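User: Can you write out an input/output pair for a complex, sequences first and structure second?

Assistant: Here is one pair. Inputs:
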Amino acid sequence: MSIAWYLAVSAIVFALGAVGVMTRRNPLVVLLCLELMLNGANLALIAFSRMWGNGDGQILAIVVMTVAACEVCIGLGMIVAIYRRRLPIDVDELRELQG
Amino acid sequence: MSAVLFFIAATGVITGAVGVVVLRNPFYSVLALVAHLVSLAVLFLLLRAEFVAAVQVVVYAGAVMVLYVFVVAYVGGEADSLGERLRGVGSAGSVGSGLRLAGAILSGALLVELLIALLGTGLEAVDGYGAGYSSGPEAYGTPAYIGKLLLTRFLLAFEVASFLLLIAAVGGVVLAGRRPS
């Protein structure tokens, strides 16, 4: 398949992740949809890397995976901290810091 | 053969992504994301990124998703309905659905824009099948190739990423740890 097909799939995955980030209220699911957006970007990076026959895009994809792992670590830590304080796990209800 | 595999994997990728967004129970969303990640690894293999596909399955679908499953099991799956109960039924319903529709429309506009930018590009190589490929122990995409790049040209990025992981691990412990009180 030509590279354009992979790019179309990556755009669709990115847009689906954006739908989830904007419409879901559970912060766990919002984090999952952020992962979807990062994966769409990764697929585009690797498709372009294949297009040029150059490994730089693959290295950047690995760095994106590292950043995603860090984001998951911090985000899940925040969700556990929110749950411990008996606050509602809902991004609409959490309006203020130090709440 | 590769076209058939591409369509099977792309269907899995998009179905998994739709499942993550649509399913009500966060636990099922996590499982849909695992299916999405495994299908995405197949696409990476088709693009001759063997090492990245292996990392995707081992690190993402293995380690990160286990972390998610633990937190979903700890926090509980019915967080969505809890939010509905706290908000009260009548007042926010219409506003919420209107905002939801606005979010979907915005994302549709984003998709159209991305497709125009990616497929309407002047790059002619987008319609090709990628650069030439030769097999061998240090060919494009193999662990030896990636390792050589990471430890020579991208050494700084490698070290910065490892330091970032250290900071995130310390931050996770500080955020989620019990406070002595």
